[in-house]
Amino acid sequence: MDFTFENELAGKIALVTGGSKGTGKAIAERLMKAGATVISTARNKPEDETTGTHFIAADLSKPDGTQKVINQVLDTFGHLDILINNMGGSETPGGGFAVLSDQDWESSIQTNFLAPVRLDRGFLPGMIKRGEGVIIHIASIQAKLPLYDSTLPYAAAKAALVNYSKSLSNEVSPRGVRVLTVSPGWIMTTASSRMMERIAGSSGSTAEQAANGVMEALGGIPFGRPAWPQEVAELVGFLVSPRAAYLTGTDYVIDGGTIPTV
């Protein structure tokens, strides 16, 4: 069979967490264009749900939410070929370590780290049994460039995710399952706009000033702008495809040149 971008994922079942908006929605749409059957999850069903996806409403920051998704996917489709652990985000206040409570830390760790761990644990046995599968962890360049004044728990959780992803790859790649990390820089989404508003509110500045502050904290973006969700989705689409069959255990940074080291 000749693979094209339109059919290279034909017959594959894919789950995209946080797939109702932003980067997750763009990834879901990209995988569907390649022929995959796509399931997306979020806390609430979106008003403009992506046509053709199967939606499961669940709060993945809680163990019963992840188990609900695992059960429904396996009961309905029998197995999973592609898992995109995209859900994540920061809802903690700006202001550095002193303003952060235990709940702030626990919430970030549950959402950005433990939710992917639980989903991997639920779907990996089936992938290993079949001797094939792909898991993508969407991390962040904040794993290497943390913004201590605004998203410290988020950055710490993403650093844990990158480390875990590499270790998991070492364990399961010999059994046919590829595990990869994608670490975007700043992506232009609604969530990023809300983060700017939160930073502005805590610092008494404007959203534009907050955005400039984030740019400065990151050391600038040589490309001159944040990424678009579709650009991240295109990288993910390649990594889960047969064209990337030898790629595993690697963290792919997509940041417009933000990280200043090789």
UniProtKB/TrEMBL annotation:
Family: Belongs to the short-chain dehydrogenases/reductases (SDR) family.
Domain of life: Bacteria
Gene Ontology molecular function, alphabetical: oxidoreductase activity, acting on the CH-OH group of donors, NAD or NADP as acceptor
Pfam families: adh_short
Organism placement in taxonomy: Bacteria, Pseudomonadati, Bacteroidota, Cytophagia, Cytophagales
Keyword Secreted appears in the UniProt entry: no
Oxidoreductase is among the record's keywords: yes
InterPro entries: NAD(P)-bd_dom_sf, Sc_DH/Rdtase_CS, SDR_fam
Organism from which the protein derives: Larkinella knui
Name of protein: SDR family oxidoreductase
